[in-house]
Fold:
Amino acid sequence: MTNDDDRSERVRLHKLLAQSGVASRRRGEELMLAGRVTVDGEVVTRLGTTVDPTRAVIRVDGVRLPPRSDHVYVAANKPLGVVSTMRDPQGRPTLAGLVADRPERLFHVGRLDTDTDGLILLTNHGDLAHRLAHPSYAVDKTYVAQVDGVVRPAVLRRLQSGVDLDDGPAAVDAIRIRDSHDGRSLVELTIHEGRNRIVRRMLDAVGHPVRRLTRIAFGSVRLGTLRPGETRDLTRDELGSLLDSVDL
Structure:
């Protein structure tokens, strides 16, 4: 943690906690003395400890504190009809229009179909974007789907056990019925796969075609009250959880 050769680039840990908004410097010292702060997996109680703010894995009560960086992390509510690209040769509206006021060159994490709205992440942190989109890290995505028909409990069990699709079997991690009326149902489901139109194909396979599909969560990040076309920066806790989920 402490390296005299690098001391000029390092920051006292209690000062970093204050700069990050976790606690005042005095409170940061109290947290350290109470054994509630770890750096790179080790409890740190010595008040003079310095850390590299760009590399150290710091946790307070087990919650990850993201490293200091120049990267930008944005949550956006993609409206229907917007394509999940930053440029479109056909002239359709793109994600670039949602972040046109930002000076950074951002790119999207994965994709949402043009006819699917909801949460999509944008960043200039290439390694994080790659890992979040990679199937090996199995990051959860949660959707709300309006479907035809009344969804029965047996259908929920079938979706959880797995259905056969043209490109192999697929299963949801969790699913529940939010509402059913007038011959339609509203279901909330969580899945970690990212195959093309996977949610729509799964629901179609069990006889409940999707009429509207909205992504409401990506890992620790939730859509919340973000309106279509709006964006916001990720919170410290959201970013820390995402970094943890892909071992960064």
Confidence is low (pLDDT under 50) at residues 2-8. Residues 140-218 form a domain with the Pseudouridine synthase fold (CATH 3.30.2350.10).
